[in-house]
Design brief:
By secondary structure, this protein is of the alpha+beta class. It has 5 helices and 4 strands, in the order βαββααβαα. It has helices at about 25-30, 55-60, 75-85, 105-110, 125-140, and strands spanning about 5-15, 35-45, 50-55, 90-100.
Length: about 140
């Protein structure tokens, strides 16, 4: 079975103010089969105490539009690493997503006996900095 690229994403929400504003966008991406949620964990850090909420059958029903697998691929080590990076009084969502949009292309590459030599995601801030440098050089 071929999988699309899988991303590990951790989003922090300061002040423990996660109210679900991003869920409609995630629902849409899942519904359009652009992504698949493989695992989802919520971490709350309050006065140094870390509370972890993984998807259980009750939460899976609530997040059904995400078609979350809830297979516990996000490990305790992953959770501890992210919890350590969180500011106190914050909430984080950890997502493991498969990029379904790339799945067919990847299979076509494999069928053509292609070999992936390198794949690296360039962080958004690095792209913005590079573009600003290009504009600065062009206007100098």
């Amino acid at each position: 079975m071929t999988f699309g690229p899988i991303d590990f994403i951790a989003l922090e929400f300061p002040g423990n103010r996660f109210r679900g504003e991003i869920l409609p966008e995630l629902f849409e991406l899942v519904e359009k089969e652009i992504i698949r949620i493989i695992d989802l964990v919520v971490i709350i850090k309050d006065q140094g105490e870390v509370i972890v909420r993984e998807l259980d059958p009750g939460h899976i029903e609530m997040f059904n539009p995400l078609k979350a697998e809830a297979n516990q691929m996000i490990t305790d080590g992953d959770i501890a690493m992210i919890a350590e990076k969180l500011a106190d009084n914050s909430t984080a969502g950890i997502l493991l997503i498969e990029n379904l949009w790339a799945k067919r292309t990847m299979q076509a590459m494999l069928d053509a006996n292609g070999r992936l030599v390198m794949f690296e995601r360039i962080p958004h801030d690095v792209v913005e900095e590079a573009l600003a440098d290009i504009v600065a050089l062009a206007t100098a």
